[in-house]
Amino acid sequence: DWSSNTISFSPSISPCNPGEGLVLRPLCTADFNRGFLKVLSELTHTGDVTAEQFAKKFEHMKKTGDYYVLVVDDANLGQIVATATLITEHKFIHCCAKRGRVEEVVVSDVCRGKQLGKLMLTTLTLLSKKLNCYKVTLECAPKNVAFYEKFGYTASDEQYMQCRF
Ligand code: 16G
């Protein structure tokens, strides 16, 4: 419920009205040809993903029902300009609860300053609550901590650990 969100937007935008010429919507297969991977490449290494690889991976994600990949489509540019994903992870703990994970939050350089990161984060955080996740988490660079704190995320005392292959 967007009206229950306490984050303020100036100018006022919302999921249904994300700004002039912009549409906030779920990812679709055709977004491969609208620069979806190019936007992701502003975050990290994407590799050379073919249309077939993309379609196969996307079908898999849809089948699980646990991936909510948002994009912002810019009608004037004919391009995807931002994306963020919510994934729900299933647990036995907390009465067989779900945990939300926010991943791949990227706003293209061509579309900075339009509150799109804020819009996507607010949307996905509200969605994780709506989906009854007992918590929602994300990993981010130290320089982005202050940004995520605005949405109620707090630094955990737990250490984030990884093993890279
Ligand atoms: C950031 C992203 C994470 C992404 C990772 C990729 C957010 C909130 N965090 O941590 O989702 O998977 O970067 O970096 O967007 P990597 O390629 O080094 O794993």
Automatic annotation (TrEMBL):
It is a peripheral membrane protein. The keyword Transferase applies. One of its GO terms (molecular function) is glucosamine 6-phosphate N-acetyltransferase activity. GO terms for cellular component: endosome membrane; Golgi membrane. Residues 22-165 form the N-acetyltransferase domain. Pathway: Nucleotide-sugar biosynthesis; UDP-N-acetyl-alpha-D-glucosamine biosynthesis; N-acetyl-alpha-D-glucosamine 1-phosphate from alpha-D-glucosamine 6-phosphate (route I): step 1/2. GO terms for biological process: UDP-N-acetylglucosamine biosynthetic process. PROSITE patterns: GNAT. Keywords: Acyltransferase, Endosome, Golgi apparatus, Membrane, Transferase. The keyword Acyltransferase applies. Its main location: membrane. It is found in: Endosome membrane; Golgi apparatus membrane. It catalyses: D-glucosamine 6-phosphate + acetyl-CoA = N-acetyl-D-glucosamine 6-phosphate + CoA + H(+). Its EC number is 2.3.1.4. Homodimer. Belongs to the acetyltransferase family. GNA1 subfamily. This is Glucosamine 6-phosphate N-acetyltransferase. It comes from Gouania willdenowi. The gene is gnpnat1.
